[in-house]
Amino acid sequence: xxxxxxxxxxxxxxxxxxxxxxPFTLSEHIGKTPIALFFFPKQGTPVCDAEACxxxxxxxxxxxxxxxxxxxxxxxxxxxxxxxxxxAKNKLNYPVLSDDDKRVAxxxxxxxxxxxxxxxxxxTFFIDAKGIVRGVLDGGLSFVIAE
Length: 147
Prior knowledge:
This protein is an alpha+beta fold.
């Protein structure tokens, strides 16, 4: 089963720490607003920085109010401390989570390796307010949506 197999199915739940150390449980946000859950390999690299900042630029008011139209959530294998510094440097206003052992969120969403195993794969999952994965954009720029 790969990332695209999740389309049309309930989003897998997980709990991992945010960059500030607080636990983030995906299911606590289901039923409130749609979610863009994106996995990126490493903070501080040009492509990952551009990706993370593009969410910020596209949705400047995201995650700052309860009635936000979209919750953006970033997930990386960086440590909480590294991600906290990186998040502050890039002025990101959405949660950035640390899946440092790659066995929780990355495993649940079947995000494996890219570049012949040299890097973690990147993928963005679009989850509706009811918790159903409605679309996936993977690192190969392949986009699958639910019918």
